[in-house]
């Protein structure tokens, strides 16, 4: 039985433009929020969404659903695909993962 305490983990990584696994949270997230410092865009993935998807909001304010090359949960973190909002080459990405 769980403790009833929900964990969160915040961190950052440098985008590579190639799929990469972010395992620093240490748990399977139910929600991940991203802030792309380089492009001033945001993204969010929730466990009710399909793998490799996420919502993104770009600098101009447009909100869209991305359905490929996005975010997929892992047992101890998450995978980001090649989408530039969550993994653009050399871009600084901050995130908060929630259990």
Q: What's the layout of helices and strands?
A:
Elements: E1 8-14, E2 20-22, E3 31-36, E4 41-46, E5 53-57, E6 63-74, E7 77-80, H1 84-87, E8 92-98
Antiparallel strand pairs: 1-8, 2-7, 3-4, 3-8, 4-5, 5-6, 6-7
Entry summary:
By secondary structure, the chain is mainly beta.
Give the topology string: H per helix, E per strand.
EEEEEEEHE
How much strand content do the residues show? over 45%
Low-confidence stretches: none
**Count of DSSP E strands?**
8
Q: Please give the alpha-carbon distance between the first and last residues.
A: 15 Å
What's the Cα radius of gyration? 13 Å
Strand order of the largest sheet: 1-8-3-4-5-6-7-2
Q: What average pLDDT do the residues reach?
A: 94
Q: Could you say which structural class the secondary elements and strand pairing correspond to?
A: mainly beta
Number of helices: 1
Helix proportion: under 10%
Tertiary shape = globular
Task: Please indicate the count of domains.
Answer: 1
Q: Could you give a short account of the major beta sheet?
A: 8 strands, antiparallel
